[in-house]
Amino acid sequence: MHFELVDIQPREITFTFEPRKQSSCTIHLFNKTDKHVAFKVKTTNPKKYCVRPNTGVISSKSLCEFKITMQAQREPPPDMVCKDKFLVQSKVVPEETSDKDITSETFSKDDGEYVQENKLRVILVDPPDSPDLSPINGAQSHPPKCLEDLSGGEETQIPQQKPAEEEFKQENKEDPVKTKDVEIETAKDVEKVEFVDEINTMKSKLNALELKLSEAEATISRLTQETRGSAQEKESLQRELARLRSRKGVRKVQVGFPLLYVVMVALISLALGYMFHRQ
Fold it and tell me: Could you tell me which residues come within 8 angstroms of residue 143 by beta carbon, excluding any fewer than 6 positions away?
């Protein structure tokens, strides 16, 4: 069991959904340790969200935050249920580590060091006190004032924010120092983490089964030894009983007259009887 490196608040990413409008949510990270901790944010849908910054280093007992912006969407998902997920990774790093030093290899588990991983799900809510804007009640009756063209009052096209990957490429050309602020990993990374979690769960269950199997084998071995001991005791008792029976038979023979003695007495009796008969 590892100690929790950072505390994440809130644990769910909540966006107020309004058609054709962006929405943002701020997540706070608090470093609970006495060391420097690096963090990295990943998502299963990088084209739909922008994270600023998505990597960073938190000093000991310090607080930092990152902002997640959801791109403007035309329609809400069915039943306002969003299946997108975010993954926040955190790991203890040397004190001299800077934001520029953080890469995907920083959070590799190959070196055996602990990497804390927290999954955050996305929650969509309706705007407060705005039934006309709720996707459940239908489309908007009229566009909000902030979307009107100030020059002639005509409806203007809503500017769409560039997807995370395109924005990353553009800023990479202009200023390489900012590249880490807009990098977002693909869904395969999060799926890989989920797969690793499933493997760890299966390993735990397998270890528990192996432990039970070892206990069962020990019990069987103990019962086998007890059975063998009982069989040996039974054989020993049978031999002792046979020996006692044989000694009892000898005693019975010794108590009576010897056969030769009986025969001699019978012959003498016959001889005496014959002599008396002749006289």
Answer: 155
Instruction: For tokens 């930092």, name the residue.
Output: 64
Distances in whole angstroms, Cα of residue 224 to Cα of each of 38, 103, 212, 227, 228: 57, 59, 18, 5, 6
Write the Ramachandran bin of 129: left for phi over 0, alpha for psi from -120 to 50, otherwise beta: left
- How many other β-carbons are positioned within 10 Å of the β-carbon of residue 162? 16
Rg from Cα positions in the chain: 46
3-state secondary structure at position 133: helix
Cα distances from 194 to residues 102, 105, 166, 200, 218, in angstroms, run: 22, 18, 27, 10, 36
SS3 state at 196? helix
**For the CA atoms of 29, 34, 40, 44, what is the dihedral angle to 10 degrees?**
-60
pTM above 0.90, yes or no: no
Distance of CA 174 to the CA centre of its chain: 43
Query: Are 155 and 149 spatial neighbours (Cβ–Cβ below 8 Å)?
Result: yes
- Which of 44, 38, 91, 47 has the alpha carbon at shortest distance from 66? 38
Q: Are 129 and 36 in contact (CB under 8 A)?
A: no
Q: Copy the structure tokens of residue 149.
A: 């063209």
Could you tell me the two tokens for 11? Answer: 């644990």
d(CA 223, CA 221): 5
Q: What is the pLDDT of residues 40-99, one digit of tens each?
A: 999 999 999 999 999 999 999 999 999 999 999 999 999 999 999 999 999 999 999 999
- Reported as type and span, the H/E element at residue 212 is helix 187-255
Cβ pair 112, 57 in contact under 8 A: no
Distance CA 190, CA 119 (A): 9
